[in-house]
Design a protein that fits this description.
With about 150 residues, this protein is an alpha+beta fold. It has six helices and four strands; from the N terminus they run E-H-E-E-H-E-H-H-H-H. The protein has a four-stranded antiparallel β-sheet, sandwiched between helices. A hairpin with a 2-residue loop joins strand 2 and strand 3. Helix 1 crosses helix 2.
Length: about 150
Amino acid sequence: MSQSLSKLYVHLVFHIKTNSCIIRNQDQYALYAYIASIIKERESMPIIVNGVKDHVHILFILSKNIAISDLVKDIKRHSSRWIKGLDPFYSQFNWQRGYGAFSVSSSLHDKTRNYILNQEKHHYKMTFREEYLLFLKEYKIDYKEEYLWND
């Protein structure tokens, strides 16, 4: 083949550090827009960024030119620095070290997008911990629970 082509949908989830301050409602939209801009700068395509006070969900198309771990590191580093500069309230803000990245088939794109869009409604019924464990189970990912919540 003379060219490299890909279209990899990724559902990315990460949480604030346990002792960090929450993301205030009035700042969520600006934070999500900033995260989307980081994704675009890294040649990937954000589809939706949303979440609640303690975690973020992102659906995006991963560029063929960047590793997922490098993109996540850039998103967390730059968004953390940005939100700390937004208001002194966020002086202790930090993301957890880990993340979950899940492949999404084209046929589940709309379902995943709607799931992310309705995060606030969804979390009236389920905690982040319950949600994340369901993802790990659905994707058959082996994990050690003691390492999921320690930072």
